[in-house]
């Protein structure tokens, strides 16, 4: 029975983590071998494989070349937005990474130095990441859709010596020059970098500032290849910033050893990928999915990773995914539910699948946001393969709950990412921290220690890690998601308990939107909530109270607010909905009732919270939303008694 097999493995991993993970560690080439698996002496801070040493780049690239697989394609780049495709073999990748690492070394980059990478979806982005790993430098990739202030705040936190970027990204809307964005960020940041390296793309020229900016090609032309530097298993490999509940992003720190072991293990256990298989995660390297499953996971497993610079629809059409699966014989494919909804919206009967042979595909994996059963069922019906919803976070780096296709495919229950992956002990807790009964909702939490590959801490901020994740329920990691577990152990993740929203699989902080809105000189107060959207899952909606006596045209103010968020947060925020209201509903202690407003906006029944200061404020919101054409056809049921 598949369920029994997975449960047995869960037990093994929980009861004997040393035995379980030391076996998994054998797939990795260590410089100093693993002797101890877990150091829990500093709990709740844990260290995996203390004392062992390795190099992640060596494991992802060099060892495969040494083993005779230099000719195998490591990265298959497919770029409909530039009309190009390119295969990079493991041998070529090794040569490119070693040379670029040599160039970085020439710029003074070494072990422990931070390097920010702000790049589009091109193979050179993976080369830059791997080159940092090769030198033991810590990379921090920033998603290209973020605006300069977001990049600047990450530069200030990570304090990099260098930023690596490209002349442009390419979106369906056109060429996005990156260099002016980078220049603006460097001007805004307090921290001064020593230099930048810019990869010139033919679509756009970047202006280089003498003495600070270096041209990638010119640097590598004169560089000597650099070797792999030995690092400790618990030395950081990267920092990846993610949205917290405040405007300040959190720098998730990933180690080298635990990360390599967990990702290599997950490639087979979760995705059923063996060496030589073709794996495709249609995400972006700026997100955790891109780190784990465009770059490191597939390369550690010696698979071929497909790196896609395009969209699910419009580049050129909703059949793009299927034709690429056919052409490159993709075995496992990973995308976000939003992408499937986008395809379904324009090609509801999947007519573009006709004449396309997707016989290589064994499973479709979805993550990044809650997967509604309709989307899952549609994909399963059209593609005729198992559709696997799996749940994880930037913090964990790989899936917490999944249907482990390489261990034992479990029966699929739409709406559930299935069982806790071996290594994760998932429990649903009530307010007091007591596990609830099956099918009862609560805070989804993970018993410590988290398995290898999960966050070590937050960059330079152990306190924020402890306070934000570990303090609420001692002995547990708080995921920030709420949900329930059924009798069989299938988890149902229903949404966040905090002010994080998920727009097209992109995690964003409403606190950050509010911070930006309140900087506008007409705004007295602002609240941002996530409202349901049939394509992107959620969309941000801003509700603002204007300063007294403000007699400017409301439409102009609203357009300014939309433009301001785009300039400060970035296009990826998809912030387009603003309502002006007379007042915001608050508790008597002044806390804005965002949850109640969210319910109203989503057309749900609302009882007046007992703590509300002025019940009429709910009516104000309801009317404003109705005027914006929201929460129809079902009007909220407001109980103002
Ligand atoms: N650099 C610069 N701008 C970017 C960008 C990047 N790397 N990525 C996105 N943007 C911009 C887009 O051009 C768009 O700008 P616009 O407002 O000028 O149109 C905006 O950010 C929003 O982008 P996106 O979220 O991609 O939405 P979209 O409306 O352009 O496309 C979908 C809709 C459904 C096709 C798209 O959201 C999608 O592919 N979703 C899949 C989700 C996914 O892969 N998530 C990753 C997590 S697993
Ligand atoms: P991120 O850190 O960007 O990967 O976002 C993580 C958050 O996205 C989680 O905490 C969830 O709220 C949500 N999420 C990711 N995957 C799923 C899923 N399969 N089901 C439900 N929510 C998900």
Notes on the protein architecture:
With 641 residues, the protein is α/β, with parallel strands linked by helices. It folds into 2 domains: 2-310 and 390-483, Rossmann fold (3-Layer(aba) Sandwich); 498-639, ANL, C-terminal domain (GMP Synthetase, Chain A, domain 3, 2-Layer Sandwich), CATH 3.30.300.30. It is built from 18 helices and 33 strands. The strands form 11 sheets. A 7-stranded mixed beta sheet has the order 5-4-17-16-18-19-20, sandwiched between helices. The protein has a 5-stranded parallel beta sheet with strand order 7-6-8-11-12, sandwiched between helices. Helix 1 crosses helix 2 (17-24), helix 4 packs across helix 5 and helix 6 packs across helix 7 (179-188). The longest helix has 17 residues, at 90-106. The protein is globular and about 70 Å long. The relative contact order is 0.09. The mean pLDDT is 95. This is Propionyl-CoA synthetase. Belongs to the ATP-dependent AMP-binding enzyme family. GO terms for molecular function: propionate-CoA ligase activity. Residues 7-60 form the Acetyl-coenzyme A synthetase N-terminal domain. Residues 68-447 form the AMP-dependent synthetase/ligase domain.
Can you give me a brief rundown of this structure?
31% of the residues lie in helices and 24% in strands. The protein has 641 residues and is α/β, with parallel strands linked by helices.
């Amino acid at each position: 029975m598949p369920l029994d097999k997975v449960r047995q493995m869960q037990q093994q991993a929980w009861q004997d983590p040393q035995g379980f993970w030391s076996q998994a560690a054998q797939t990795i080439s260590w410089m100093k071998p693993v002797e101890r698996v877990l150091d829990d002496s500093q709990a709740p801070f844990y260290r995996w494989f203390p004392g062992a040493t390795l190099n992640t780049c060596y494991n992802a690239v060099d060892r495969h070349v040494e083993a005779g697989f230099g000719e195998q394609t490591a990265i298959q780049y497919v770029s409909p937005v530039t009309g190009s495709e390119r295969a990079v073999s493991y041998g070529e990748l090794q040569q490119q990474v070693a040379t670029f690492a040599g160039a970085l070394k020439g710029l003074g980059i070494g072990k422990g130095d931070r390097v920010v990478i702000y790049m589009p979806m091109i193979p050179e982005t993976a080369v830059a990441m791997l080159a940092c790993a090769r030198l033991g430098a810590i990379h921090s990739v920033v998603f290209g859709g973020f605006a300069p202030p977001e990049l600047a705040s990450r530069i200030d936190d990570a304090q990099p010596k260098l930023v690596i970027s490209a002349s442009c990204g390419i979106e369906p809307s056109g060429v996005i020059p990156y260099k002016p964005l980078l220049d603006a960020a460097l001007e805004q940041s307090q921290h001064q970098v020593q230099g930048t390296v810019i990869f010139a793309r033919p679509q756009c020229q970047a202006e280089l500032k003498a003495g600070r900016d270096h041209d990638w090609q010119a640097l590598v032309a004169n560089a000597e290849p650099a070797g792999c530097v030995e690092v400790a298993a618990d030395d950081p490999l990267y920092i990846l910033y993610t949205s917290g509940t405040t405007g300040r992003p959190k720098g998730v720190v990933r180690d080298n050893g635990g990360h390599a072991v967990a990702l290599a293990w997950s490639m087979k256990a979760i995705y059923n990928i063996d060496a030589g298989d073709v794996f495709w995660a249609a995400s972006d390297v700026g997100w955790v999915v891109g780190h784990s499953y465009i770059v490191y996971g597939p390369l550690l497993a010696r698979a071929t990773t497909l790196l896609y610079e395009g969209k699910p629809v419009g580049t050129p059409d909703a059949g793009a995914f299927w034709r690429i699966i056919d052409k490159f014989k993709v075995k496992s494919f990973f995308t976000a539910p939003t992408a499937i909804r986008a395809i379904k919206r324009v090609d509801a009967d999947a007519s573009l699948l006709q004449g396309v042979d997707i016989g290589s595909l064994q499973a479709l994996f979805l993550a990044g946001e809650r997967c509604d059963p309709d989307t899952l069922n549609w994909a399963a019906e059209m593609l005729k393969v198992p559709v696997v919803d799996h749940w994880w976070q930037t913090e964990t780096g790989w899936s917490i709950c999944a249907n482990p296709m390489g261990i034992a495919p479990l029966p699929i229950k739409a709406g559930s990412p299935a069982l806790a992956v071996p290594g994760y002990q998932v429990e649903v807790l009530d307010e007091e921290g007591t596990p609830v009964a099956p099918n009862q909702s609560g805070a989804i939490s993970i018993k410590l220690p988290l398995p290898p590959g999960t966050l070590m801490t937050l960059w330079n901020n152990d306190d924020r890690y402890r306070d934000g994740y570990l303090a609420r329920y001692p002995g547990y990691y708080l995921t920030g998601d709420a949900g329930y577990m059924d009798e069989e152990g299938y988890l149902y993740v229903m949404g966040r308990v905090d002010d994080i929203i998920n727009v097209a699989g992109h995690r964003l902080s409403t606190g950050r939107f509010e911070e930006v809105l309140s900087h506008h000189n007409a705004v007295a107060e602002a609240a941002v909530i996530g409202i349901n959207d049939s394509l992107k899952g959620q969309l941000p909606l801003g509700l603002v109270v204007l300063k007294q006596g403000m007699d400017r045209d409301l439409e102009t103010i609203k357009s300014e607010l939309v433009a301001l968020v785009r300039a400060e947060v970035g296009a990826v925020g998809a912030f387009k909905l603003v309502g002006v209201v007379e007042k915001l509903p608050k508790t008597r202690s002044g806390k804005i009732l965002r949850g109640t407003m969210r319910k109203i906006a989503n057309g749900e029944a609302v009882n007046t919270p007992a703590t509300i200061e002025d019940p009429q404020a709910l009516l104000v919101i309801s009317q404003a939303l109705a005027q914006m054409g929201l929460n129809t056809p079902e009007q909220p049921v407001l109980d103002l008694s």
